[in-house]
Inverse folding.
């Protein structure tokens, strides 16, 4: 059995050392990262998708903490709060969403924290995936294609957007910046929250209704072979805009079919996707950028907005329904072509 993968997030070096010593006694536990601030914790959790995060309660007092809780839920990572100074005073350990709170002292044995971690990640007997139960189908225009790019904060954003997609959603492709070798994990995660089929983006996979192709942590850039059918192609190559896969590369590859494309750029650091979105809009695509208020990091969508690549800015919770409305062949399309 693979070890339980743990991220330790605390500003205290002493706490880091203490926890490392306590956890090292158990072969089924593995510390995969240690971070000392909330921003680094967010990025590392999205990158590595750990089983458990041991986090100082100091971080729970920050304004950014609610975003962390959303991320924990999105990536199905258990959180354990370490309250107080771990070495010098009584502490408390709890799970997000749990009703029980176990008090422990500074003499907390390795076996106790081991058991707490095991309890935190053990599914309840009645656990079922948080997959939408509806079998909803819509009248979808056959010519529409949805493209989405996301980085920091994107996993939580994607779960929100895709929960609005029906089982027969338009062909959709996503580039999500994350660590290497996490495509399969992300596919499983999003499949539990989407009525449509989520598959890993691989060469030869056909873009078709009801299918969402996800490129996250793949070895190359996601591009499209556009013929009678639109087919995914994963091409190895150097980073573009600082990333591989690059959102810019996916967007640029779809320029030949831009008039059929609705492209979305979500929360994230840097500028990947901005130039590609600009090219798509210039070629006739509809383009949407996540707004500042709902972005974890208003970086990529800000750059895209500033260079005129964004036709419409929207709050995260509005994007999914808007995408489906724009892809409907029932609602009048002229009323849906709003710009800012």
């Amino acid at each position: 059995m693979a070890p339980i993968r743990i991220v330790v997030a605390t500003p205290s070096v002493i706490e880091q050392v203490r926890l490392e010593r306590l956890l090292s006694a158990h072969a089924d536990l593995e510390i995969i990262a240690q971070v000392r601030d909330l921003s680094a914790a967010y990025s590392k959790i999205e990158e590595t998708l750990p089983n458990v995060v041991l986090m100082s309660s100091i971080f729970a007092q920050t304004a950014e903490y609610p975003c962390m809780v959303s991320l924990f839920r999105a990536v199905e990572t258990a959180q354990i709060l370490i309250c107080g100074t771990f070495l010098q005073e009584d502490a408390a350990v709890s799970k997000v969403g749990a009703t029980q709170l176990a008090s422990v002292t500074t003499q907390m044995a390795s076996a106790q924290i081991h058991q707490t971690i095991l309890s935190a990640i053990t599914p309840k007997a009645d656990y079922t995936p948080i997959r939408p139960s509806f079998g909803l189908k819509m009248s979808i225009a056959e010519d529409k294609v949805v493209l989405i790019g996301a980085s920091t904060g994107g996993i939580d954003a994607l779960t929100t957007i895709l929960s609005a997609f029906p089982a027969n959603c338009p062909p959709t492709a996503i580039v999500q910046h994350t660590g290497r070798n996490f495509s399969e994990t992300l596919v499983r995660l999003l499949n539990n929250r989407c009525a449509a089929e989520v598959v890993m983006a691989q060469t030869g996979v056909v873009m078709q209704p009801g299918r969402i192709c996800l490129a996250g942590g793949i070895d190359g850039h996601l591009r499209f072979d556009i013929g009678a059918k639109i087919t995914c192609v994963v091409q190895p190559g150097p980073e573009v805009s600082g990333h591989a896969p690059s959102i810019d590369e996916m967007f640029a590859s779809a320029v030949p079919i831009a008039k059929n494309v609705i492209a979305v750029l979500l929360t994230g650091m840097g500028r990947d996707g901005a130039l590609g979105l600009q090219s798509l809009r210039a070629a006739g695509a509809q383009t949407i950028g996540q707004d500042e208020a709902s972005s974890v990091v208003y970086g990529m969508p800000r750059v895209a907005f500033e260079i005129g690549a964004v036709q419409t800015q929207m709050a995260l919770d509005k994007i999914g329904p808007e995408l489906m409305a724009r892809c409907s062949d029932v609602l009048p399309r002229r009323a849906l072509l709003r710009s800012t």
User: Anything to note?
Assistant: The first strand starts at residue 4 and ends at 9. The longest helix spans residues 110-121.
